[in-house]
Design goal:
520 residues; alpha+beta; Protein Transport Mog1p, Chain A; nine-stranded antiparallel beta sheet; three-stranded antiparallel beta sheet; 17 helices; 14 strands
């Protein structure tokens, strides 16, 4: 009898959780692969540490939390359903962040199912596990831009205090004999997220009470800006003293590691300083009450439910990309190289750019007009279907990554004809002495949209409302579409308003051509 009881307990405590975990990883393996692609980027390299760190934090609780004692409860099913829905919505709407939050939610739902109310003892490791989700692109772009400007302003002040004349324009510092450009990689974002993680861990291990932990966390943004601004300041001094070679290549990377280590040392010192400050005691910590006895039926049912939902939703994700609706259209091979008074010359993108563009068809051309010093670059990528890592995305990151500084942006209305109004996004950008008026809009399925998030909402809406389920899988509704980019290089001394008039005239001539190549 004891042998039978041992076998039953062994199945419940080992086989069932392992079966759920295997189904979870198998069903969402493509999502894990996409997550790995993001982790490979330098801004997200800290993510590789999160899963080992999560298991260490769980192992660190081995004496206070009885992991082998389960408290099975169906309350985790609701969180699992919500997380699975978020994954499917993220795939249909091409919002990768939803995919990864859904993965974290599924893992959390499994913990809630296994340990019930006792999961509260695992809240901190689960919060740390959330760091597997990279920052959403728009948050990354916003933080990068703000951190670059803040570090540039600080470095400018430091250089002037050191007697170095400097003129700052955006993220470009002109120190006379050379110019310093604070690129994305030097924004300090690579310090910010690891330092936030470090501050949370230091607060957990060394500081009791929310007040100390909050103070440590609030120190991170100004510290990140300061160390990065100091790094730029030091680079300026080296250039002024004719040691530019010490700001390039391996020395540049070494200085990045050095300032990060200094920032980390400051955080550690602050954590120990806060530890010495006397504060009111927080009370005794609650102890784990342990698991509860249960039979064979509930774990079997819960395992079946979890495995079924994971495998079915994984099949749905796979079938979404294998069965698409492709509308008929003309290819861009026939796209005219004369638009109004503008004559163009076709160009072709490199394999590296195409790999990041994800387009199924595209036209790229440069247009000139006789008697005008303006040059217009046109790029229209078309997507037969759109899902994660195969979708149109706003060009700000590409332009800023190419060295352009965003001065301002707004939305403007143009009238391509007497009966239509079209809203486009217009950005005034500068690189060195060259100014550019860059515009874009998402075009497809009868809509013109300027917001990437509104565009993703319509993708999700059309995929769901126009889709159908067959024996071959889920066939989503049409998700085809394009991004129309029109970028006008301003002539020297040309006003922004005059450049906009030229841009509007070109788009007005371009407008009637679009439906031939991008189906309505």
């Amino acid at each position: 009898m004891n042998q039978i009881q041992f076998s039953t307990d062994h199945i419940i405590k080992t086989i069932f959780p392992v079966a759920i975990a295997v189904c979870f990883v198998t069903a969402y393996w493509p999502v894990f692969q996409k997550l790995g692609i993001h982790w490979a980027k330098e801004d997200n390299s800290y993510c590789y540490l999160i899963v080992p760190l999560f298991f260490y934090l769980c192992w660190e609780r081995k004496t206070s939390f009885h992991f082998h004692e389960l408290t099975l409860t169906p309350s985790g099913i609701f969180l699992m359903l919500l997380s699975v829905s978020l994954i499917i919505v993220g795939e249909l709407g091409s919002v990768e962040t939803f995919l990864y939050i859904g993965i974290w939610g599924c893992a959390t739902s499994l913990a809630v199912t296994l340990y019930g109310p006792r999961t509260r003892f695992l809240i901190f490791p689960l919060i740390i596990l959330l760091f597997i989700v990279p920052l959403p692109p728009f948050v990354n772009r916003m933080l990068t831009f703000k951190l670059r400007i803040a570090a540039s302003i600080l470095a400018t002040g430091m250089l002037r205090m050191a007697g170095v004349p400097v003129f700052r324009e955006g993220n470009i510092l002109d120190i006379g004999i050379d110019k310093l450009q604070v690129a994305d990689a030097c924004s300090g974002l690579r310090y910010l997220m690891p330092m936030i993680l470090m501050a949370i861990l230091l607060g957990y291990f060394f500081n009791k009470g929310w007040c100390r932990k909050t103070l440590l966390l609030l120190l991170v943004p100004p510290l990140s800006i300061f160390v990065n601004g100091f790094r730029i300041f030091a680079s300026g001094l080296l250039i002024i003293n004719h040691h530019k070679e010490l700001t390039e290549d391996v020395y540049h990377d070494l200085s990045g590691w050095l300032v990060f280590m200094v920032a980390g040392a400051v955080l550690v010192a602050m954590a120990f300083f806060l530890k010495k400050i006397r504060m009111n005691p927080t009370g005794e910590s609650e102890t784990d009450p342990g698991g509860k006895p249960f039979g064979f039926v509930m774990p079997a049912v819960l395992t079946t439910v979890f495995c079924t939902f994971f495998l079915v939703s994984g099949w749905m994700l796979k079938s979404v990309s294998s069965a698409q609706t492709y509308p008929e259209r003309m290819t861009f091979e026939s796209f005219p190289m004369k638009i109004g008074e503008w004559k163009g010359k076709r160009s072709y993108l490199s394999k590296e750019i195409m790999d990041s563009l994800w387009a199924d068809d595209y036209v790229s051309a440069t247009y000139y007009k006789e008697g005008s010093m303006n040059i217009i670059h046109l790029l229209i990528p078309f997507y037969e279907y759109q899902k994660t890592r195969h979708t149109a995305h706003a060009p700000q990151s590409c332009l800023i990554g190419g060295g352009w500084t965003l001065l301002r942006e707004n939305e403007r209305l143009i009238r391509p004809n007497a009966s239509e109004e079209v809203k486009i996004k217009v950005m005034v950008m500068k690189k060195g002495d060259t100014a550019m008026l860059a515009s874009y809009f998402f075009f497809g399925r009868g809509r013109v949209v300027t917001s990437p998030w509104v565009n993703k909402f319509y993708l999700m809406q059309d995929a769901i409302t126009q889709g159908r389920i067959t024996w071959d899988g889920i066939i989503p509704g049409r998700t085809d579409g394009s991004l129309v980019r029109v970028e006008l290089m301003a002539a020297p001394g040309q006003s922004a308003e005059d450049a906009y008039i030229q841009l509007e005239a070109f788009i007005s001539h371009l407008w009637p051509l679009l439906p031939r190549y991008v189906p309505l």
